[in-house]
Design goal:
Layout: H1 7-17, H2 19-22, E1 25-30, E2 35-39, E3 46-47, E4 51-52, H3 54-73, E5 80-88, E6 98-107, E7 111-120, E8 126-135
Antiparallel strand pairs: 1-2, 2-6, 3-4, 5-8, 6-7, 7-8
Protein name: PaaI family thioesterase
Family: Belongs to the thioesterase PaaI family.
Keywords: Hydrolase
Length: about 150
């Protein structure tokens, strides 16, 4: 699969089309076999007990997988999540950003399947494993962001 959007293009896309997450999430790297995204954790992402809440972990995985798919198909803004599964495996480390490492497992014309492992920055063991399926609409001027 060829890379058609690099990290800079994906971050610009997020800032323009998804400003609600662009302040917390950034694409760190787009590589031939994976995408790496960062979630900048602050107080609004914490739940009682001082750990990162599940909704923030899910949001990171969803945005990261979406961007991994867009990195291969281009800025199709109307690609949507059709299925999601998250296994929360351990408590995220306090005071650390989260990183998602994504792999595309299948990229078809109308469906894409990908997975993400979510880590606390600097830690070896993942805090969550996510699997998601996206529906990809036919590319038209209406659903292309560029």
């Amino acid at each position: 699969m060829d890379i058609v959007m690099d990290a800079q293009a994906l971050n610009a896309f997020l800032a323009r089309d998804f400003p609600q997450v662009a302040d917390a999430c950034s694409i760190q790297a787009v590589l031939p076999d994976r995408l790496v995204a960062r979630w900048r954790v602050d107080d609004r992402h914490l739940r009682p007990g001082g750990t990162v809440g599940g909704p923030s972990i899910f949001a990171l995985a969803d945005v990261a997988i979406y961007c991994a798919i867009l990195s291969r198909i281009g800025p199709v803004a109307l690609a949507v999540t059709t299925n999601a599964s998250v296994d929360f495996m351990r408590k995220p480390a306090a005071g650390r950003d989260l990183l998602a490492e994504c792999r595309i497992l299948k990229l078809g014309r109308s469906l894409a399947v990908a997975e993400a492992l979510v880590f606390s920055d600097g830690m070896a063991d993942p805090v969550a494993r996510c699997s998601m399926t996206y529906s990809i609409p036919p590319k038209t001027p209406q659903n292309s962001a560029l």
